[in-house]
Predict the structure.
Amino acid sequence: MGTRCLFGIFVFGSNSSVIYRFVTDDLFAHLRQCFQTRGYKLQDDTTDENQIDNNNNDNELTLSVDDAISQHLSVLVRVHEQTVSRHDPIRRITLNSGMQVFFDQIAENNVVCMADKSFDTTIVLKTINLLKALIKFHIGALPFIHYNTADQLINRISASLQYFLNNVTTNQALLFESCEYLHINSLIREHCRETCNMISNDIQNSLKVPRKIILITCNDKIVHMYHSPDQSRPNNADLFLLVLNNTSRSLRQEFEQQINLTNVMAHKFQQSMNNLNENIINSARTSVVSIPSQLTERTNSCPNFSLSSSTTSSSSDKSGITHRSEIVFLRTSNKIIAPFTLFTIPLTDNVSVLILVEWENSAVCSSLYELIRHLDSYTSHGLFSYDKLSPQVKSVEGSPAVRRYFESVGHPSNVLSDTLNKAHVLHKSSFKTNGNIDERHRKGLRILRNLTEMSRLSTDVFRHLFFDSDDYARRCSIDLDHDHEVDVQMDGIDIIDTRFRRNEYDTSRMTKMLRKKIILQLEDWFSFIEVKSQRNITMNFCHNDFPGLVHFVFIDRNRGQICSPALITDNQQQYELKCNSTDGIEHILEKKILAFELECLSALQNGFTAFTMSDEYFTYNYTLHLQESNGASMRLYKSFVQSQPPGVLHFDFYKALAEEHYPWIPYQTSIVCFELITVHLRIIPSYTVRQQCDRLWLKLMETDE
């Protein structure tokens, strides 16, 4: 019997009910069995014996599985809530069964993550942060509740989570939350650049938008990236989410085919451990690895979720598909959050083009996001700051789109300012000396109601401008044959105006035209790009200069790039290992490197920026390096300990580390952060390892992208 995979994330609403669950079928069955053992009668328990018992005991209370989960886990949630305001709140507990329970929050919602001991703590924490980042990536400033998130959005979030968990233990780019760029020759790079310039002009003519970003991707790697001169570059975390969103696209129909038995946004994975199943294709390996029927428990790693064969499609089917547009929210160099329309054009099974078009009203998106975030914070903590809210409200009401919306629903165009002024008057009067405590309390409640009303109005505006007006969920499901009959609204154009501009932003013709042009330009290079994505770089380029060096991982945190060679064994070694029925050297070394990388991340989280470890075969070394933009090295002179794992999703660990050591220097412009992991043969002396690491730093930093 195979090892069980027990993992689940539960999001609880304000009334302690489960509003979202992401759970494996093993954990779901485990919880169900626990509830039945304790005597619960579950509504979806349809066995004959229980059906007879239910008929004989009509008055007996029956619960759904989600109700039982809420009843039990809400006790743990309340314990966590009582410690949130402390300096060191409870973040993790271990149950008697050995199950680990992690606590976190998403705005006002509580998050509980359950995982067995086969899941490394760092991976669990990274998965929780990934969920937070995906929620902002897909729904922006809207609260994470059922009516705000269409089924398509939930499927996208869950598909990205599943792909991450399937591949994080074998794909170093996922583990370090960075993008890997293909190292291609100058000829292909020039062809990609010319292609992007060409289709940029076509997009300009079709959509009448000046700002755009174009990415050519192959599997989980970026082949080329282009952005118009006036377009700000997205931050590294959102580029990582863009690639993850694209590579996990094939998993979405797994969730679309599920039938939810409750009104919860529920996702439960099927995992047939007794049959031979293929793992999700991982570009870090040379071939697809099959899961054996008798699995052994893997410590310090994440058990694999299975992917049914129904998600696979032939190359001819995929090549003929033109994916519909999506709306995503990215952070750029000059905006906290900005809405983009994402067009995905598949060229082959592995090569795709991602086109991002920034909305013209993206400025008001940032203003609304900041206003909603401050209002929610003030209402949660009982605070009020007129000086901070007033300029944000003026910025929001200065948008013509916001004023038109308020007028269309019967509100004054300055309803936010009026409500804020009412709260301000109450706040000033509550500090008069002649007021008693009860009167101050009543005024405080009225201030809270005004702030809550402002938050509701701002959220309604955000939903209308970036979701209701651009019904991308509807456009994703329309028939392509009748696509020319559909109005597509983009870039802040009002629905009323769209009626008189039929087909101006019709994307089906544009994407089909772009696909033909791109294929015409790059078709001869597709095979090379696909092969190159499997063997991006090798150790051959540095064997002569660095004798004894087996493997390295180099991460440039400012550019969000990771550089790591593929592991290669020669044909004779492969033949001998196959005859002896043993794991390949690639797989053995891969597991050793993974174990060390997890140790590195744990050590970095606890304040160690350098870490060395040895076993009977290899010496492993990790170093984090800060330097100024002019190349001068910067000293790390104190420990930096965080509860958050090292990464850039939701919480930028490296930015916080740089600000802790050098708060007077702007991180994005003046401080460069690098990480280097090296694996040497054990026989290499330690002083030689240090010398090679110093020279490898310089060689890798000089390498062109």
Q: What stands out?
A: Residues 437-468 form the longest helix (32 residues).
